[in-house]
Amino acid sequence: MLSTVQLPTHLEQHSDAETQKLLHTLVRQAVSQQAYANAIQLITCLITQEPKNPNNYNNRGLMYYHCQHWPQAMADYNRAIQLNSNKDKVYTNRAKCNLALGRWSAAISDYDSAITINPYNIKARIRQGVLFRALKMYNDAIVCFGLALFLGKLSAHIYGERGRTHQLNGHWNCAIGDYQRALELLDTSPNQLLEKQIQSWISEMLS
Fold this sequence. Notes:
Radius of gyration: 20 Å
Strand content: under 5%
Largest sheet: none
Order of helices and strands: HHHHHHHHHHH
Shape: elongated
Distance between the termini: 48 Å
Number of strands: 0
Number of helices: 11
Structural class: mainly alpha
């Protein structure tokens, strides 16, 4: 059940542009407080103001996703894509929703669409690689991570994920090499959570 959002008094006295700006501000505040149900209601108000803006549907889809309301999130992502099919982030978001619903093939297809639209969408490449790995499609996962590395961003993360893929595929020497490279990169750009994850994978392999 969504709680009631208290909109500012005399909101109707503002111009449409002022109302939209105010609603965007309130949405950001709600998201920063993880008040996702309130954010949904605020974005619904924005959709009333801007019914053909795909960003509003994508953003509301994200809020539904955080609330684990998968069908509502999927409906909003589909609507966003109907309004503009050239936004890679919407496909990436819909892929995550498809994963939550257990629709592996649909998620892979969405990641493909995101990457086709924006070949530099590193997160889509990484997540698709992780999905391939979960499905034990190790060679496809390695290809994903290799292409992501070629683009030169989030390298420590990618080496770590590729190392895990080699490990699960039984290629321990390759795994160690990737883990070491990831840890070397983390020396200059620390990420404690990632380092802890990689160290746990190494310990699992050596135990």
